[in-house]
Amino acid sequence: xxxxxxxxxxxxxxxxxxxxxxxxxxxxxxxxxxxxxxxxxxxxxxxxxxxxxxxxxxxxxxxxxxxxxxxxxxxxxxxxxxxxxxxxxxxxxxxxxxxxxxxxxxxxxxxxxxxxxxxxxxxxxxxxxxxxxxxxxxxx
Length: 140
Fold this sequence. Notes:
Elements: H1 2-16, H2 23-37, H3 48-70, H4 80-83, H5 85-96, H6 104-114, H7 120-136
Helix pairs in contact: 1-3, 2-3, 2-6, 3-6, 3-7
């Protein structure tokens, strides 16, 4: 179900930007692919095309998820992630797993293409708000 949502979020993103294809996003991620691959400790078992596709889908999904979490008016009324209360908690836990990490530079590039360039602080704020509930469960 989440894989379908990733595609749906990408389609909604393209529609909101009045774009018919993801070509410019693919091109931007392709330019980061080698640098992003160096961020992983383990060898990548994906082809270059699969890696680019994964980074694009994951990056768009994560940015859109965090924005929709912060700003309810961005949510589609049929968004299954926000219709089920447990889903957001599950995604928060899943995105914190080390093996699920996407390089920060990929997320920055996606956000820069969606909004204004060089807004690393915006990305950090979105992430802190998104994970704040998950962090509040831990007692230090």
